Amino acid sequence: MNAVIDCLMNHRSIRKFLDKPIEPDILDTILQAGTRAATAGNLQHYSLIVVDDPAKKRAFWDDEMLDAPTMIIAAVDEYRLKRWFELNGAPFYFDQISNLLIGYWDAVIALQNVVVAAESLGLGTVYLGEIISKDMAGILGTPAYVFPAGCVLVGYPDESPDLRPRLPLEAVVHHNGYRIPTDDQICAYFKSKDERWLLLTEETRQKFMDKGITNWAQRTTIGHYTQEFVIEDSAGVLRNLATAKFRLTLE
Amino acid sequence: MNAVIDCLMNHRSIRKFLDKPIEPDILDTILQAGTRAATAGNLQHYSLIVVDDPAKKRAFWDDEMLDAPTMIIAAVDEYRLKRWFELNGAPFYFDQISNLLIGYWDAVIALQNVVVAAESLGLGTVYLGEIISKDMAGILGTPAYVFPAGCVLVGYPDESPDLRPRLPLEAVVHHNGYRIPTDDQICAYFKSKDERWLLLTEETRQKFMDKGITNWAQRTTIGHYTQEFVIEDSAGVLRNLATAKFRLTLE
Question: CB contacts < 8 Å between A and B, how many?
Fold first, then answer.
């Protein structure tokens, strides 16, 4: 349809990267594209933190698979505005849950622009969700009012995976109201997941079944995103919110 | 540099729209582009709700200026997964703060893809941050585990505003650690804001000064995003989180 739509429609997450750094002017361009995203009140409630020091990267993820040359963290950042306010005799109270969420929104749409710009220039990316529970303040020295919202690895791809199936559009899109799907519709929407279960080797399927896992929905929860994982991740988020001094209640 | 970078670099928020509906195939294309964004675990923890019924739009915002033909809400949606899990005998515990934030991230990067796709096709957009505190469940009948993450108005532009200045890149980008800016750096970063104060008419500036507002930082806080507004917005967010049954504490 046009080059922009083509770029968006062809997104794949890349998990294997060439050992080749990103050229400084390319990095600069994708970061500039990030900062052109819309931003609440034109106030840019975020920072973008580029991490290419291998030791710092490993402090976040000790995972050899994540061998990208560059990691970019998008952080909610109200610290910069706070200092500007203080220097101008203006009060600061942007530490409430609405500020957290608007800052989160600001940060990740800037990061999505970085991703789209990167892919248009032949780079590959993958989002790492667990950043929200990592000790960013300890590793990168972020001050209060800065919270890790999003993270991507960026580098030149060393793989070209197939497009992954998405739910059919009618599963995700509603019109003038939320249409509660019927059970049959739910089953139809998630058919591509059920098919993944059938594509597993007999051996892998047996391993899951030995753990009482008999379908892809169970594999998604008890076989992957366990309750223990979700609770641990949430504990990390709450620690980070306390460190960043964002309030979750009105007082 | 390329058509994608050009599109991203040329974003303007549009607040005045032609009285011309979006063609169904164009709407379909931009929504499809939204669903191709990366998504945590390839699980699409969001829904996109298209609102073009004028009465529903007005139920959210009774504002004549917001005359776009179409509003698109990106909502965190764990309800659909919950039903899939239930129908497959899998447990549901995706109601924790980590699920809320990952769903929020998923929802708004899909929405940013919608925005980029829309702009590439000649449409204009504007984000409306206050959606997070609006009574979406009351207006659109969203069930538990669905929370309003983001919102844009979309339509054909009836204005062509100038690019708005952003903070210099070095204000927003950090490298292998958070660099605490000096006071002088903060003042330099926000120079374009101070210039806006000087560009106000004598009359407007006098009106602010009558309220004790003597610079743009004070105009931003006590003159615009007042403490009362932030608290009220946050109260709405907390109401929506309670309605959507997301937990803000571990228990």
Answer: 362
